[in-house]
Protein 1
Amino acid sequence: MNKVILRLCFILAVPQVILSCAEEDIDRTAPELTILDSTIPAASAEICGGMEDQVYRIGNGDTLGLNLQFKDDVALGEFKLDIHNNFDCHGHGTDQAPGVAVPDVSSATEDWSELIIEGLDGTMENLNITLMAPENVTPGVYHFSLQVIDESGNDTPLSDIFSIKAYNRKDTVPPVINAATPERSTMDVQRGDKIRLTGSVRDNRSLSDGGNGVLYLSYTDLSSGNSFLSDIIIPFDNSVQTTYEYDFEFTVPRTISSGRYRLSLSLHDGLRNIAERVEYELNIPN
Amino acid sequence: MSSISPTNIRWVGILLLLGLFCKGQAQITGVVKAEDGETLPAASVLLLPDSLRQITDMDGDFMFEHIPEGHYDIEITYLGFQKKSQHIHYKEGQQNHLVVYLQPIGELLPGVVVTDEHDKQEEVLSSEHLSSEYLRRNRRGTFAESLEKKAGISTINVGVGIAKPVIRGLSGNRIIVNQFGIKQEGQQWGQDHGLEIDPFAVERAEIIKGPASLQYGSDGLGGVINVFPGKILPENSYEAQLNGVYKSNNDHRGGSAKFGLNINNFFAEARWSEQTFGDYRVPANIFEYNGFTLGINNERLKNTAGKETNRQFTLGATGKWGISRIVFSEYKLDAGLFSGAVGIPRSYTLEDDGNDRDIDVPKQEVTHRKVSLHQLLYFGSDHLSIDLGYQQNLRTERSFPEFHAIPASQIDPNDTRALAFDLQTWSANAHLQKHLTDKDKIVLGVNAQYQENMRSGFEFLMPDFQTFRSGAYGIWTHETADNHIFQAGIRGDFGKNQSEYFKQYVWNSNEAIIDSLEVPTTDDNFFNWSASAGMNRPLSDLWYMKLNLGKSFRIPYPSETVSNGIHHGTFRHEQGRSDLESEHGYQMDLGLTYQGNSFQAQMAAYFNYFDNYIYLGPSSPARFSRLPEAGQVFQYRQDNAIYTGFEVDYRWKIIPQLEWQQVVDYVRSYNTRTGLALPFTPQPAIKSDLSWTVWQGDRMENVFLQASHEYHFAAEGPNRTDRTELETPAYQLWNFSAGARLNLWGQKFHFDIQIQNALDTRYLAHLSRYRWINVPEQGRNVVLSIYIPITGSL
């Protein structure tokens, strides 16, 4: 090999060596966030069928005070607090999760929604935050996340995601479904068949009180776990009092593939207290 | 189609250029003999790279007529004899009669077919050539993964059905994949977007590592993968191919059938391929994600099943005048995404659904259709090549709207079309190769490409856009009497990006608008130039060297300039910047090759400096997305960057039956502003193979056993990971394979078995999409494949 080649090899080897010895003191450390104190303590609770360690139970109009401490080795950047509803459990259907978005009905309650972003300075900062649940909060499960980044963008995404279980003192009693037909909980059906569902629902207060009262039917493909809303959605208007007699027909979709399905009848009262669902298993043969 | 039939093109071509390139008729003739001098009739003689095939006559003679001057390889196969490849440098007026001796089958493994694309830049660039046999033996779920064993190549993958190639750490819009001369355009900017090519349909391929943007366009500054058409059948013959594959890990069943014929030099080919696979297994019951421990039921990743269907149809004609081809192809993929990988994984999304073959939401649906016309016209020793193509890429990413914080009032909750793109691309390439003297030739070429992209779906990431790219280039090659090759070229480019204004409101669950995603109208023009100079010279009888210096550039793609939204495929709020400039690369590449009898080695080292390198990183100073359920904003940024590294690939025939091969691969990236690596830099790796040829006989050929080991170094620390990028520990894998070719009743049957990840090792791959949620890669996988080629005369 001649000298030119050796020189070229050397030229190409130099950057490998230099870059291998690059500075190790570059800021790659994520900032820290500590909840020093909270006015409502977090506790373990069941959320959407699974247990979570840090769940805040908060009633309407209640305040949650947080004393937060942020630390970074170089320079803090921003803090973000986010509360949004998790009524659908953000996932596929299980016994606990509806698996579909709750049908939109005229809402008189208010979903708790917070989005706070604040700039942070220095290497350590304490922040007191007071959050108040809406006076007329929609009861249910909420995601509650706290995030911090430093000036360079080091972060620990999604590491502080908690849940809030909000309740509304005006009514904490869930309504009840009394199904009359079908009598059997498992049925063999064909595409296009009509299934008649009858029965009654009742609650301690007017089902329309609060504005969220709705009875709706959804179905879940048990082979995939995915759920779909049917076109049967019965919102409760002012004419509905503490009881309601239902009687409707569900037509098995002609486009549905064969297999096992779960038909679910769901009920919310006006403040979105959720009734225990009534479920039927459908078998659609080939 | 009658107006552009091959016959018409032939006459138009001949009339237009008759007289300009009038040279004497030329031919390569030869005779094929056995070692003892006996002539071999009916041996197959293949002339590469033009894929012309002849069968020797009763006296063992063959003849290729009207061949332009240049470098060729002749590959001769004959039942019971070793395949032989011979390189020839063909010149008019010289004696071009070859006498080829074949050895009866001994104990050697067949050599890899080496093709020589004699008019291209790769004469002075590092390149790898892949034969159909190599591709078959190393077949993985996707074409991109089949290339991974080669030095400098890795893949960015999403599970087992979606993968895209990475060359020396560069990927996406920095890599061009040409299928039959037409650049594949399929939203390749997306990290979770795969390459839409049927792995069965790739019969020959070539990888150019390094800046090949001179001939292929500005996006080729990272490298090029050329997928060539299959061999043209001999006149009045037919061929059928049957491929079957089964993979135990995910109950993957695949097959491909091809039928081709050539009648009086008019040829046609049809291929149909299908692959279906279930949820794949990983050697883990749980995975850790941000403090949550989540279950993987039955060690299967829920909803990772998929189905791929491909069709390809070719019509063509060949003759003294050249080759014409029209190719229609359709690629369809329906692939589920792990339910835990979209949104925030929680245990209830991961419940066993009782079915490991269903493909459910969330998922990707991709259809890629292409029609292309390829015309090669010979004029004596020169030629003109024209490629025209139209392709449509339809991509739909399905997800439930409630995963995206869209209130039910704004959308039908059962509408799962989250993100959809309809990308149409029209391409035209032409180049002329002309010899100026015996020692000098030039290639002059032009490329043009126009694209339209239409978006739909409830999620916003990018607006509708149009792009135009065009370029003209010239490459001059000079060859000295002592086989030194010098090459220099220059290219000018004009490009245009236009995108529409778009605004999408962001709602909270109280039906209140809290923010909006907005992108401006853009209309940007880009002019620039590239240049390169290189040499290829023998240093001795056994050593030769390639050296290339190049300046290249890349025009920003609209995904980098006008995207704005949470890409739920990547969990981030990604923002483009409309003020991005072209990135420029200054690249140096040195390759050394040693060609001994029992020892061959290739070494390459490269240094690439990029001015205004575009990448996705935290904004400066970092800030949070104002959108709910989003982390910090990741912006397309420009910094100066270095990509450097080396590759070593050697094979040593310890004894004739035993061969040892090792590939060492090291890429280092460096962002000069942050001092950190660039994101998605592959882990350095050492891959070793020990192959033993157990048996060579008449009925059973090439019976081999192979043990392979891969060691992938950790991607840890600032030298190997960017800020916020997860670190990946080192891992090692053992793979075993065996194969045989049976000759029964005059028919060949190829059988191969691979045991991938034989020890069922749990590991994370740094470039895997599922690495971000700590989900390990596929566990043990036994792959069985069969290939039956059937040929005959008409």
Note: Helices of chain A lie at 3-20.
Protein 2
Amino acid sequence: MTSGSGPAAVDEAVGGQLEADPVRAAHEIAEYLAGVRAALADLPVEARDDLVEDLPEHLAEVRAEDTGSLVERLGAPAAYAADLRLAAGLSPTTDTPAKARRLPELDRIRRRIRPITGWLRQWTAETDVLIGRVVGHDRGTDFLRLLRPAWWLLRGYAIGMIVLAVFVSDSGSLLPSAGGSTLIGLAVVGPFMAGSVRVGSLAGRLAGRWRLISRIATAALALLIVGSVVDASDDSADLHYSPTDGYGGLVDIYPYGRDGQPLNGVRLYDQDGHQLELGNRWGRCYSYAPDALPVYEYPLCPLVPNAVQPSGPVPSGSPSPAPSGSVAPAPSGSAPSGPAPAGAGDVPSASVSPGANPAGPAAGGAPAPERSASPAPGPVGAPPPSAQPGAG
Amino acid sequence: MDATQLLKGVLDLAVLAVLREDDGYGYDILRRLRASGLDDVGDASVYGTLRRLFQAGCLNTYVVPSESGPHRKYYSLNSAGRGQLESSSKTWRAFASSMNGLLDEGEAR
């Protein structure tokens, strides 16, 4: 470490002379400064400028004290630079020579935004302390540092799950699974988690470019994880329509064809090709052939064929919208699996078996809502909700 | 025992403590450190320490123009710096009392 006092004899001999020669003093300062800068030439320009920022001012003060030359007072420029570097926590020498100098434009921008980055740095540091106070540590980052191993595990898990999704693509749950086997899934994801922890504990020793790369990769991965979580929650919201917009009590849907025939096995799709899962599949029909029950094919509770009785004066094939006044409109309270209530649950023609399935839309095909279909001729089962008499 | 070796470990704390009393520019801080008995403190190590503490967000800076001489960059403690000073002081006091206890114990025998 450089010591403050130069040889006393030299002080006395040259003191007055130096004072008398400000030009020479300025020259000495410039020379010393250049020497220090040269010894720091391997640092990025920004770091070096930071380091020597106060130096001209300091050298001027030391020189003005008139107690000897700068070298006598402070030691050789190279030694001064070494002390500076050490105290500032920078490595003694770095092997990459000032690569930032290749981009002078970038340096100028850096210099210009330095007040902003300084302010940001200060702000984050203060926030850090503030958060630390809340969580009971000196700094918030102290607390986060404790959580590091947890992040390593999560990171490995996320990478493993991404790999699984790309190559196997049958994960939908949080537990890894491959080909239906959670065991294989764990065997795939587990090594990623172990590797991530290993990398995490080694990453502190990374330097230079690799450190930067690892930081960028980490940030990208974190974004990916957040993105996929948000995406997943969006998806699930899409697929489960909540029938609150006017159909709060909706339990089942009874589709009818243009000819007034009830349709069975109809699947409904929205504009994006997602199947609609409206109604309560398990509610009313649970006792009705639960094994044979298709997944959200409407009606969920098909009418038993022999329970369907022709009733009312509706002529076969004629889509007359006017049902007999005696027909009870909705059996909503009654059990659908039993015999239809008198006058209800009828079809226009008794000769046509309702078991014949008019084809529903093929899975993934365009939705076939049959918007233009004429309304069912009679209020059978549940009346088609949008049907208006007279529209046919 | 070389005091400069000891200084390396506690220079941060010393600089923070000096700045608790009053803001200061580099050379002023250096003088105050020396005045308080830390004769061996080197110019470059004080400036380097100031730079590192600033980078760590413990210090604020402002420039004061002066008529006779160069403009001076003053350093002051911010709340992060005060927090750092507080926790480092605790560490130092615990360490020093352990050392004192150890030395006293040896002397008593």
Note: Chain B has a mean pLDDT of 88.
Protein 3
Amino acid sequence: MKSILIDIGYSHFLILAAVLFAIGTAGVILRRNILIIMMSIELQLNAANLTILTFARMHGDLSGHSFAMIVIAVAAAEVAVGLAIVVAIFRGRRHVDADRLNLLKH
Amino acid sequence: MSAPSTHGRAAARVLLLLLAALVLWTGAAGLGVTAVGDAHAQPAPGNPGATAKAPPRSATPAGKGNGDRDSKYGPPLKKRGGPIAGLFWGFAGLAVLGSLFVVTRRNLITAVMGMVGTFFAIAALYMMLYASFLAIIQMLVYAGAIMVLFVFVIMILNKPEDEPYGGPGKAGKILAGLAIAYLLFRIASVLLHPAPSGWGTERLDLALQHPAATAQGYVWGSTASVGWNLFNDYLFPFEAVSILLLMAVVGAIAIARPLKDDVVEGPATDDGAAAGASPGGHS
């Protein structure tokens, strides 16, 4: 038990990434504010990046670094468009509650 | 407050319990795997006569099992824990606590600050994985640009039901003062005394063995190595990402631009006239 706490291995990083991804999933499912949901999605992307970089370190392969950088760029684009949508929704409706945005529900 | 549904809230609680159980199970499974791996690799080098002495030897720290287990995955981890293990647990705890802040807090600014702490902790963990370039990119893009964008949008929305963010208490002021003093001290020390040669690599070698250099002779994880990999093997995804970013910029401007008939056709027509008269006049 002591060696688990002292000897930090790859599995620690992977478990931490899994925990962060689970917390992000909880945020996406439980919260109603769209901004919090988007932050939780960012958290999930970060957890995925941590996993990718851990695997890149395990196998000594630098492709994971390129992949993580592309993931970061895509996340930045997603945030820009998503926040623009949030602003557009708020301008017309004066709230960003995900449960009340049921206009497309027939 | 509009009451969407009470059973929705109950379902949310059940989901939260399930996710907490998932987190606990994941952590327990991971620790169990580590313990089993240690126990599995521990008696392997010993002869049968030494099995009786195996339990007292297992109490010694830094067993050989870790090296055996990790040896098939690239360079093995060095078995010196100590302060580096404490650093890992500290940053892991900071990341988990910050993400819990994001999920649980009602104040949006508090959630953003938790997110910034999480991003910094993850950048530190990247550094422990020798992904130095990605760590800097993480700090610049995530903790810098994306979080500032979030704060801008929160300020624009200016939600009325959020209580204004109160000033920090005495402990917060003391912590902030200490942090500012430490920052000034670091800046002054850097300006007065340049860092000795090889300072960063020596410190990081305590945690994990430094991976070997790439085939081109670059330091693993550095900007040059990542750039070589990115512009040789992944040139097409890189160009595709540049086009994607251009489209995102154009799309964001096209979506968020205020239109003339935007407020008129909005469903909230009771205050739509006031908002149409002076958009953004509330803030």
Note: Chain A has one domain: 2-100.
Protein 4
Amino acid sequence: MAKDRKKTKTRNGSGRRAVVVGGVRTPFLKAFTAFTRMDSIALADAAVASLLERTEVPRDQIDSIVWGGVILPGLAPNIAREVALDLRLPHSVEGMTVTRACASGLQAVTLAAAAIERGEASIVIAGGSDSTSNAELKLPQKVVHTFAPLALSGASPMDYLAALSQLTPITEILPKAPKIAERTTGQVMGEAAESMARRNGITREEQDRFALASHLRAAAAIASGRFDDEVTPVGTPSGDVVHVDGLVRGDTSLEKLSRLKPVFARDGTITAGNASPLTDGAAAVLLMREDVARALGYTPLAAFRSWAYTGVDPADQLLMGPAIAMPRALERASMQLSDVDIVDMHEAFAAQVLSILRMLGSDAFAKERLGRDSAVGEIDPERLNVHGGSVAVGHPFGATGARMVTTVANELYRTGRTVALLGICAAGGLGAAAVLERC
Amino acid sequence: MSDLLLDIGQNPRARRLVQSLGLPISLPQKLRRARGPYEERELFGRTVVVGGCGALAEVLADVLARAGADPHVVGEASAVDPYRGPGEAFGRPPVLLAPGEVPEGIRADALVFDGCGVDRPEHLRVLHEFFHGWIDRLDRCGRIVVLGRPPEDRKKPAAAAASAALEGFTRSLAKEIGKTGATANLVYVADGAEDRLQGLLRFLLSDRSVYVTAQPFRVSAQAKSAEATPSVRPLDGRVALVTGAARGIGAATAELLAAEGAKVVVLDRPEDDGPASRVARSVGGSLLLVDVTDPEAPGRIADDLRERHGGVDIVVHNAGITRDKTLRRMTIEQWDQAVDVNLSSVARITDTLLEGPLRDGGRIICLSSIAGIAGNVGQTNYAASKSGLVGWVAALARRTAKHGITVNAIAPGFIETRLTAAMPMMLREAARRLCALGQGGLPEDVGQTIAFLATPGAHGLTGQVVRVCGGALVGR
């Protein structure tokens, strides 16, 4: 590993590392509100179009688009290529779409960085989008298996009628509503968060306090114009223009949050107030090779020191992945938590973030699960999610990673701080983390 | 093969009918058996109530948290301290319960009592104090494990008495709870062998030890051990020889060993070519057709293991026969056949394997029998051979300990196999009920115990006889 690090350094020294030049996202809106008629591709189009416009990147020099998504449009799952075609980019701008559950956005960005640092590309747009409003109802395979052969063989209407009789009972052929449940365990995400709260001794009040801070910080960022550089107004098919995030509640209070009923268990602690909501939105990041960026007159904001993706047992503590991934990314960056100036964690649930903070602060956890002598460390709440997180801003699955990279890159550039640590939990027991440094 | 009482017991209406008629029949509980290979969290979500002195608290805390159980600790406030670290690491915070406190509505999947501190007869009442309140809260197919120090290691007679008392207590408890499908076992942990307890505890608390009950175990540091003890796929990279593997217990064992990652050599007589090769194919193993009594057999087996597999780690001597006759009617041929297959060939083959192919850290497991140990009319030859194995494992275990090789015997009770299916119906029915669990075991129940003894985690057990008998009323 020491060898790898050395290599990275020489690459950095010669200006061949990948840097974040800018990022833009759509406002994030609650599902089934103003973005209902915009699918994941349309949202991606809006984010990338704005990124092109704001950065004035020379279109003919873009090598590719790498996109992340979770609920992919069934008929055109390669969103990246559709965006290039929709926006009339040169046909040479190729595209790939990746999925790694809620870490898809970060996955797209780190893939782009890797491609640049391997010398495959010098300018890449990476990002992600999701439209929960456009989740597709799944036709049961039984229906597909009954009718598809008929359709392919050119059968008569009578054949179809005959086939219909095979499709009983009716409950077996009703379309299944999409559900955020684990394929292997059947556990719904919220139940997993409930179990984590219990297993790590996280109280309802702690969660509500955390959620409150997320809302107040996001609201302050919006009010101060901090997000103006990174959020673009989006016109909807009905002719309205959405300017601002729709889920942030600057007027909420601990009292209001504490009145909400638990959603996943009668005596539970997870409420609509301390969980991330179903959201529509997209985020895009522009990455370049450092020397290319400087030659074109761009100001590099931040570069990746390292990243790490991990997996844990989804049947145990589904969303604890970042507690393994974040220390690993630090280790790859040859850094300690104390070297980090700001931490940005995806807030699937307040309980999940608080559980991970507890794990990072535990000596016993460090010894048993990380093979370290002592705890990774405590994270100062003042340095964590400084402008709020997914609980307040919302969480369009594939977009969140790119949103975080954008906000953190801007934050490093604006404040002069040097190192940021990102952490994202994802379905399937996945964890993702990255270390960014200011250029 | 169907067990009528077990079927009735599973049908709620029939069950109620039998009960309302006041028939003097107790319906056995359908046992909950583990499916699939070992899991990291074998005890996921199980409520385990721990009581007793706390001498083994560190080991218990570690095993329970790693295996995904939720520990409930009965004792003073400081009793939970050892459970905090593992609780934090694995998300299993301990729940403290005051002595005598049994919360409303709580059900325990397992009760574990640390009796290491019991060192005089007057002190035995702690058993009553702990179990009296909790025994009714033990769920169906629950588990009880009592831990103690071996009586033979106690210097004072009073302490030895208290230690030995744990055995009678546990055996009786096993019989009390057997009708609910629950089991109770005793583990004597030698001083300095505490860190070898993990594997056995995991096994006893899991759904893999379903037919092991009323059984004392002795955990010692006798066999040398330097290896890691993985909890999943513990047999990865190991080679296992199973004799008599064409059907029954042998076939079930081959499957279970393969499921944990072992490369299995399926051995049976040339006449059983068909079923043996089916087993070999299904477990992805290799086939070796040899008659174990053939004088050439030890050499051929050793050559095959050396040439095709580079050696062997696990040897399961499962091949066995009966030649039942009362002694006055038994011919010398019948005597010879039974003793040769069941005992002499086991010793001959093992001696040859010990000369080379059997690697350090190996496992030798042979099949004894409850009937053999207890003695049975018409089985003088069979019982001689099967109880001979008991002496053989104890002596061999001492010799191989320095190579980390453990040697143990399994004594199955009434197992539903081809052999028992051939018994007269009334006799079979009676035999099934003569144990605490009130039903026959399955070949896989024996296989699970063999597979456990084959794992690196079983390094604390050697020279022993492990009964897989559902708490049979006979035997010792």
Note: DSSP finds 15 helices and twelve strands in chain A.
